[in-house]
Known about the structure:
The longest helix is centred in the middle third of the chain and has 32 residues, at 241-272. This protein starts with 23 loop residues before the first helix and ends with a helix.
Amino acid sequence: xxxxxxxxxxxxxxxxxxxxxxxxxxxxxxxxxxxxxxxxxxxxxxxxxxxxxxxxxxxxxxxxxxxxxxxxxxxxxxxxxxxxxxxxxxxxxxxxxxxxxxxxxxxxxxxxxxxxxxxxxxxxxxxxxxxxxxxxxxxxxxxxxxxxxxxxxxxxxxxxxxxxxxxxxxxxxxxxxxxxxxxxxxxxxxxxxxxxxxxxxxxxxxxxxxxxxxxxxxxxxxxxxxxxxxxxxxxxxxxxxxxxxxxxxxxxxxxxxxxxxxxxxxxxxxxxxxxxxxxxxxxxxxxxxxxxxxxxxxxxxxxxxxxxxxxxxxxxxxxxxxxxxxxxxxxxxxxxxxxxxxxxxxxxxxxxxxxxxxxxxxxxxxxxxxxxxxxxxxxxxxxxxxxxxxxxxxxxxxxxxxxx
Length: 404
Ligand SMILES: Cc1ncc(COP(=O)(O)O)c(C=O)c1O
């Protein structure tokens, strides 16, 4: 009997996905920062050390730490020149920030459909959405799955648009032997608590283009050039030294943490193989991709189940799978913000006179298909192969009982 119906759960102690525990060395380093009294990046060494480490990890010329992944996207969009009157294409099947950062830049998000095999933006759909107003595409590597970067770079060349890689969920992923976040014109990262490396909150922007890096630097810190002289509209998007030291050490630990994620996912996929194509499908990386496994996205065969997807999620939790949730249940264009289109209080950017067009968000079939059947596991380096086996056992139990 299912645990949700009063049966014995697969796990008595629920599985919990936790960010890695910081070592004594890191705790000491944070204490040293606090004792030093140098708490901000302008005078400190740690944010700069993290930036150097990230640039070297990615193999790019410039990396800049910022306050979070959302401000990173805002900064990147402004750095490549996105502003009022522009359109930016992105996916509706993502966390809100991939699109709201476009609104922050006072530009209009245009949604393209996704590919059912990877759940990432479909290059053909992006190409269909390009207009004379398109300035950039925010390409999200969702869940850690690399997007089809070759196709996007070809589109960029053909139409003169800029590619912003939203790498918030994919630090360490690779596409044809290159790290994602090093392929587009500019890329962004999040160091939020659930991400591959974390400083609680935090973010970064990376690029090979010196002019973009220079603009991003100004945008990050009030647009200030020289003491109290302001060159452009900037913000305060700086990272603290306490975050910098955590980010630096976390990045050095990343390869080991990736190995642990991969070991967990390997067992999970092996154990789920008997259900593949029948009761569920897990989108897998193509042979030329290395997935970073921030999330495991599981697509349920909802037509074959007696109960709705949300019941499956509750049933899995009751079995002890504490790291299950739904990313993402609603394509962004269906949420009130995009339905009402009020934006900056009075309807901008949609109603901005520099834009001068009407936006209508029509349903995108693949995004809707994915949103209604996806179930997500949050992957963290603390998860063990036993956790993976138990999770697969819980899925087998729940889906078999609920089969129509
Ligand atoms: C795809 C994606 N983009 C952007 C962000 C925004 O990052 P942050 O939460 O650090 O602002 C997140 C996550 O939180 C994300 O998952």
